[in-house]
Design a protein that fits this description.
single chain, about 120 residues, 5 helices, mainly alpha
Length: about 120
């Protein structure tokens, strides 16, 4: 199938599909005329990429773990890769750290905003 067909099947625009290819997440066959040729297996692969992106993983991490997942009904499950769980745990810890940093920044901003509002109400 061509890139337009894959875009239609997955709801992902062609530009993103090309980006996924650049990142090594999709590997379409290149025809003699330069067109990309995708397979039916690329449809669930794009769904997996989208789900992993929604989980906050970078394309670099997704490239490491994408081969570790498959569909089981509506669920994406591990295919038994030994490092998959550890990779996900590491990424979850990273996200938790970022959330903590953002919460700390929010508290500082709240303090500054409160002081600014108090000053404005006096003037």
């Amino acid at each position: 199938m061509r890139i337009g067909d894959l875009a239609h099947e997955t709801g992902v625009n062609k530009r993103l599909l090309r980006y996924y290819e650049e990142q090594g997440l999709l590997k379409p066959v290149r025809l003699g005329n330069g067109y990309r040729e995708y397979t039916e297996a690329d449809i669930p692969t794009v769904r997996h990429i989208r789900a992993l992106l929604a989980a906050g993983l970078s394309t670099t991490v997704i490239a490491r773990v994408l081969h570790c997942v498959h569909d089981e009904g509506e669920l994406m499950v591990s295919s038994g890769c030994p490092t998959f769980i550890e990779d996900l745990r590491r990424e979850r810890a990273h996200i938790a750290e970022m959330i903590a940093q953002l919460q700390s920044s929010q508290e500082v901003l709240d303090t500054i905003l409160d002081a600014a509002l108090q000053e404005a109400s006096r003037g």
